Amino acid sequence: MKIILTHEVSGLGTAGDVVDVKDGYARNYLVPRGLAIRWTKGGEKDVEQIRRGRRIREIATIEQANEVKAQLEGVKVRLKTRAGDAGRLFGSVTPADIASAIKDAGGPEVDKRRIEVAAPIKTLGAHQVSVRLHAEVAAKVGVEVIAA
Fold this sequence. Notes:
Residues 13-40 form the Ribosomal protein L9 domain. InterPro entries: Ribosomal_bL9, Ribosomal_bL9/RNase_H1_N, Ribosomal_bL9_bac/chp, Ribosomal_bL9_C, Ribosomal_bL9_C_sf, Ribosomal_bL9_N, Ribosomal_bL9_N_sf. Keywords: Ribonucleoprotein, Ribosomal protein, RNA-binding, rRNA-binding. The structure is a single chain. The chain has helices at 23-30, 44-57, 62-73, 95-104; strands at residues 2-5, 18-20, 36-38, 77-81, 88-93, 115-116, 121-123, 125-132, 138-147. By secondary structure, it is α+β, with helices and mostly antiparallel strands. The protein folds into two domains: 2-63, Ribosomal Protein L9, domain 1, CATH 3.40.5; 65-147, Ribosomal Protein L9, domain 2 (Roll). The radius of gyration is 18 Å and the shape is globular. The mean pLDDT is 87.
């Protein structure tokens, strides 16, 4: 099935790309989550709007990405959350929580979809997350999870 991506999907493409995927993947995952729309001849007009919006929001050059990377790596991110006696969290820390903690710590605004958490954060302590800023630039951010 041909679809038009409305958001970046790892391993598939970026917003505005027209890709061919299996029917079930598109019907059951991409379209219901708003990550893609079905391709039509009329939808071809939407592709240019999506690409234009992506260019506005996107970090255009590697130099800009490196500047944001330096800002992110210089920020000390502390996230307060509820935890049990053994240091296990009630739930887990989400990329949205990390994005708001980065902004609260004085760092640049980061899109939660660009934050990659290797394993779910379910314990107190220091953790590393990666923020994809550009196709070739990723920042490593240290997140310290403390009890509230």
